[in-house]
Amino acid sequence: MRIRYLAIAILGTTLLVAGAVRADDAKPNPLDVIPDKMPFDVPYGAPIALDRANAVIAAAVDEAKNRDWKMNIAVVDSGGNLVAFERMDGAQLASIVVAQHKARAAAIFRRETKVFEAGVQSGNNTSITLDGSIASRGGIPLVEDGKLIGAIGCSGGTSSQDEVVAKAGAALMK
After folding, report:
1. CA of 151: how far to CAs of 104, 111, 122, 166, in Å?
2. Helices (H), 27-135
3. Beta bridge partners of residue 150, listed in sequence order
4. By Cβ atoms counted within 10 A, which residue in 88, 116, 149, 153 is the most buried?
């Protein structure tokens, strides 16, 4: 009798697991969607000049100072190479490389780093396997006349604070 109950329990568990696996297989994979156009297809332009990079940083620093936030701010050219950097007094030391990483990722992937963060939050973790990506807000491409000329990266606060400061710098391009 016990063997019969055990066999029924095993069969029931097997059917439940098989049903769950089939249910997971039935969900569409968002990575299987094939867009008609290339996403984030912003053409690369001439690299940002030092005076423009410094102006972008100055706008970002002004925003950070107005909010009493201590930030590290990096501007890279269209190839992801550092052009200008500023560490505000008291800014977190670990955020120096993070700000540069955010700027570089925004430039080479031609998208805000917030896109990677959103992907991870939605369960699409493939973006974290891409060399050079960073799933944290605060990296924003700098686009002028429809061409990517560089990017700004900010770090030192929460990712939403970093994004606010980066947007203030990027607003100079509009």
Report:
1. 7, 9, 25, 9
2. 50-66, 95-108, 114-121
3. 77, 142
4. 153
Note whether 64 and 28 are within 8 A (CB): no
Number of H helices, E strands in the chain: 5, 4
Q: Which tens digits make up the pLDDT trace of 87-143?
A: 999 999 999 999 999 999 999 999 999 999 998 888 888 888 888 999 999 999 999
The correct answer on CATH 3.30.450.150 for the domain covering 50-173 is: yes
Is the entire prediction scored with pTM above 0.70?
A: yes
Q: Where in the chain are the domains?
A: 2-32, 50-173
Alpha helices by DSSP H, the chain: 2-26, 50-66, 95-108, 114-121, 159-170
